[in-house]
Structure formats: structure tokens, C-alpha cells
Amino acid sequence: MLENSGVIELDRIDVRILAELLSDARASQIELAEKVGLSPTACARRIRQLEETGIIRGYRADLEPTALGLVTTVVVTITLEKQSEEYLAAFEAAIARCPDVVSCHLMSGSDDYHLQVIARDIADFERIHKQHLSRMPGVARIHSSFAMREVVRRAIPETALQR
Question: What are the tens digits of pLDDT across the range 108-150?
Fold first, then answer.
């Protein structure tokens, strides 16, 4: 593992470890070591380095939203009244506290932010819109689009590890 201008370069073993963890983050150290051709100690050392450098940020359960009754995915675009640092910071602090927002991205182009919201149904999204989104500081316009179905969802594609 080498750091080159802020980007950490991974060797083929690091890439294999990450690919295996993407596939099954619950694999034991022994299973993982066997799959990548290392001793369990060497594998654990590599994983610890990947964690310490921030490449591995944590381990999470991948929950199925529909099994929890969250069947409505909404893509929301937000335009702020101004794009000053003050407005951006106030909006970002407020949106970070909104528990129904799954992701939020600052955008280039005509919209300032794209959000993904998961709700139980349209009535639940109406509640989220009224209680949270419409009360965000500095918002000039909100546009919501309802997803019909999810086609692809992945954390990080394995191909990104091999570049």
C-alpha cells in the first residue's frame, strides 16, 4: 500500500481483500486469509492498515428497505436562494439531521443538491416534505421524483478497485 498524491495505491492482495469484503464482510479472518493466499496474521495486519488509512470506513448491515415497509424511493432536487458558503453550510447542517435522507450530494449545474429519501408511502413522504424538507434553511425550490423501481444498487463496484 503506497500513498501517491493523496490517493492510496493498493497492491493486488489489498484489492483481493477488499473485493472479498465487499462480497462478504462477515467472513472470518481465517476464511478471508485462505481466499487471498495469506496467513490469518498477515491478513489481519493488512485489514488493520486498510482501516487505519480510512479505505475501510466500517462494516454495516445491508438492509432491504422493502422488508421494513420502506417502499417509496424519492429523488429530491433542491435549489437554494443563494450559493454562498453561509447558505450551503446552514443547509448541509440541517439536512444532516434529517433521518429520512439516505444520501445528499452537492451538485454542479442548475440544482444545488440531490437527495435520496426512502419513505413508507406517498403520505409518509408528504410528512417528510412538510416537517423537514420544506423547513430547510435557504431553500428556494424543491423538486421531487418518485422512483418506480431500483435497477442497480452497490456500494463501490469491484471494478473501481482494479484501476
Answer: 999 999 999 999 999 999 999 999 999 999 999 999 999 999 8
Contacts of 131 (CB under 8 A, 6+ apart): none
What pTM does this model have? 0.79
Asked whether 17 and 37 are in contact (CB, 8 A), the reply is: no
CA atoms in the 13 A half-sphere facing the CB of 23: 13
Contact in structure between 76 and 133 (CB atoms under 8 Å): yes
**What CATH number corresponds to the domain at position 26?**
1.10.10.10
Which residue range forms the structural domain that includes residue 71? 65-146
Give the single-character DSSP code of 66. Answer: G
How many Cβ atoms sit within 10 Å of the Cβ of residue 50? Answer: 19
Is 153 contained in some domain? no
| Within-domain flag for 156 | no
What's the CATH code of the domain at 135?
Answer: 3.30.70.920
